[in-house]
């Protein structure tokens, strides 16, 4: 069991801005490595019951499994390999489950170019009779899934054990976060879509990918079935997948949509009907008479053109901005470590991203 922090007066105060999966994972790793530092998570939305149904942040609505997204990128692969191995080791906890999976392709398959086959477990190419109707080829492997409604509170609980403080606060500028940290502090900017409007950051490369899903009780659906996200062969705006969760028993997330630059948080029932019919065709197990729809969800995946941003930046504070009062006091340098823009891959890259944040923290503070 983790021990509560014992802080020292000369250790920097670390403020993690954002309590989604990236912010919480970063706080976990940093507080484990630097138990004498003071840590505070500052966020408008916290992983508590009152906020877990709030559409204003992405983490509660995620698919939260590992699945292949897009093409190979070295940094992404390393980040996701670290995360996959961490989550695999967590299976005995009950928070994570082993998930048998089939990924379907509509084009001929060259398995030599499947970039993720050494990342997952038990990879193999499907036999023709195993390929679902509507697909041409496919692969099978074991992956992992979790339930954000259980996993986020667990991460918060682990932070609580380490003495991490939580502050519910809407922060409008990076300078405001720096004021909370103090002149010798550090800010971890894990604001997701908020990085677009955070004064001082204002990253216009950040954009939403709208995801609409259905939560169902489907006891016969015990495997992950999907067409891969982020490939040109997928029709614009559609993403077909089923993600059985470790708990509650029988719960399956059924999707979905992949609608770039859409900020629409309303439920479209024509879209829901289309999702359901596509998944019925792919997974006959959904036709079990016990299957029932439990709810409809819409969330905005926090993506960034050019890929996720994990880097350190030194700011001159107080900030000068037309949107802020005239700064007072002497200028000083302040360290911010950015960690945002993961799109649909936040959970599956979370532990690797937190390790990258920790390495930047060590490097720039010369610890």
TrEMBL record:
Domain called FAD dependent oxidoreductase: residue spans: 13-360
SUPFAM superfamilies assigned to the protein according to its UniProt record, in alphabetical order: FAD-linked reductases, C-terminal domain, Nucleotide-binding domain
One of the record's GO molecular function terms: FAD binding
Family annotation (Pfam families): DAO (PF01266)
Keywords, comma-separated and alphabetical: FAD, Flavoprotein, Membrane, Oxidoreductase, Transmembrane, Transmembrane helix
GO biological processes: D-amino acid catabolic process
InterPro entries: DAO, FAD-dep_OxRdtase
Keyword Nucleotidyltransferase: no
GO cellular component, one term: cytoplasm
Binding positions for FAD per the UniProt entry: 171, 191
Needed co-factor(s): FAD
Family assignment from sequence similarity: Belongs to the DAMOX/DASOX family.
PANTHER family noted in UniProt: D-AMINO ACID OXIDASE, FAD DEPENDENT OXIDOREDUCTASE DOMAIN-CONTAINING PROTEIN
Name of the protein described by the UniProt record: FAD dependent oxidoreductase domain-containing protein
Organism in which the protein naturally occurs: Phlebiopsis gigantea (strain 11061_1 CR5-6)
């Amino acid at each position: 069991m983790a021990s509560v922090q014992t802080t020292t007066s000369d250790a920097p105060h670390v403020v993690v801005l954002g309590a989604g999966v990236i912010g919480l994972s970063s706080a976990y790793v940093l507080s484990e490595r630097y138990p004498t530092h003071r840590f505070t998570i500052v966020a408008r939305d916290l992983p508590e019951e009152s906020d877990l149904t709030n559409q204003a942040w992405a983490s509660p609505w995620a698919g939260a499994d590992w699945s292949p997204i897009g093409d190979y990128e070295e940094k992404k692969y390393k980040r996701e390999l670290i995360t996959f191995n961490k989550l695999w080791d967590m299976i005995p906890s009950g928070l994570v489950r082993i998930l048998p999976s089939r990924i379907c392709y509509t084009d001929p398959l060259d398995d030599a170019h499947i970039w993720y086959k050494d990342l997952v477990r038990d990879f193999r190419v499907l036999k023709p009779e195993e390929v679902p109707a509507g697909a041409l080829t496919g692969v099978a492997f074991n992956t992992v899934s979790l339930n954000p409604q259980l996993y986020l509170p667990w991460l918060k609980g682990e932070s609580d054990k380490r003495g991490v403080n939580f502050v519910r606060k809407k922060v409008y500028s990076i300078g405001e976060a720096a004021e909370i940290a103090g002149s010798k502090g550090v800010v971890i900017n894990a604001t997701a879509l908020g990085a677009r409007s955070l004064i001082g950051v204002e990253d216009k490369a950040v954009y939403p990918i709208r995801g609409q899903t259905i939560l169902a009780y489907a006891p016969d659906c015990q495997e992950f079935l999907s067409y891969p996200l982020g490939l040109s062969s997928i029709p614009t705006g559609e993403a077909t997948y089923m993600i059985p969760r470790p708990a509650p028993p029988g719960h399956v997330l059924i999707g979905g949509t992949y609608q770039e630059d859409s900020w629409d948080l309303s439920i479209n029932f024509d879209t829901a009907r289309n999702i359901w019919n596509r998944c019925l065709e792919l997974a006959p197990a959904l036709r079990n008479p016990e299957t029932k729809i439990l709810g409809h969800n819409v969330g905005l995946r926090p993506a960034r053109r050019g890929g996720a941003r994990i880097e350190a930046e030194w700011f001159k504070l107080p900030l000068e901005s037309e949107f802020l009062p005239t700064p007072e006091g002497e200028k000083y340098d302040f360290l911010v470590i950015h960690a945002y823009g993961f799109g649909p891959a936040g959970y599956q890259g979370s532990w690797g991203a937190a390790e990258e944040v920790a390495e930047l923290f060590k490097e720039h503070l010369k610890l």
